[in-house]
Amino acid sequence: LASQLLMVMVNDPSQATDALSGGLVGGFGLKGEQRSDVDEAIAAATSDLPMPATVAVDEEGGPVQRLRYSAGRLPSAQEMGDMSTTEVTSIVAEHAKRMAEVGVTMNFAPVADLRNDTILEERTYSDDPDTVARYAGAVAAGNSQAGIMPVMKHWPGIGGSDTDPIAKTITFKITTGPNQPPSGADGTQQTAEDRAYTIQVAD
Q1: Which residues pair with 10 in a beta bridge?
Q2: Element holding 56 (H helix, E strand)
């Protein structure tokens, strides 16, 4: 069903119950920091459905964590950038296991943008495209190991803007060349996206 490809963003799992049971959407994403017993709320919202629901959160680490009270703290992208990629994958995999126990199936992470201190700050791994690709791939691998679907973001590259997309609509010029993948607003090819199942194109 086409509705299985749709999700609704909610502050609490109970707000998605009617849409899920009515077959209008295939899942939901949680906004804001969630309470410690959110696992019970997720279970209640997704029980007795004809098909498994997708349950998504922004669990990047650092300042962007929806499950800090139920899954614990996860280092920020900036902190992960000072670790080895092997260590990052291991840390993320352990955290993702706790996410799965809560009932989450999809993570709106990692951030594959280049570092931009104006907007993204500690949400990025580096200002070097190759480094970002390696660390974003390591985070995606950690999520995948725990059965959580990673979502690379933000295509085509918020790191190339000085405007917060939450506050104002921003535009990008996307360039392509012969036999080359599209380049983002920061001029870098989006190679890290090859390591994720899905790509987020908005905030």
Answers
A1: 30
A2: strand 54-57
Question: Is the pTM value of this prediction over 0.90?
Answer: no
Q: Please provide residue 107's backbone torsions phi and psi, each rounded to the nearest 5 degrees.
A: -120, 120
Amino acid residing at 93: A
Which positions ≥6 away from 44 have C-beta within 8 Å? 13, 14, 17
Q: What is the mean pLDDT of the chain?
A: 84
- Kindly tell me if the per-residue pLDDT of 181 is higher than 60: no
DSSP-derived 3-state class of residue 156: coil
Q: Convert the pLDDT of each residue in 33-82 to its tens digit.
A: 999 999 999 999 999 898 899 999 999 999 999 999 999 999 999 999 99
Q: Is the pLDDT of residue 191 over 50?
A: no
How far from each other are the two terminal CA atoms of the chain, in whole angstroms? 26
Is residue 178 classed as helix, strand or coil in its secondary structure?
Answer: coil
- The residue written with tokens 């990629």 in the block is 85
Q: Is the dihedral of CA 25, 26, 30, 35 positive or negative?
A: positive
| Parallel, antiparallel or unpaired: strands 54-57 and 27-30 | parallel
Contact 185, 163 (CB under 8 A): no
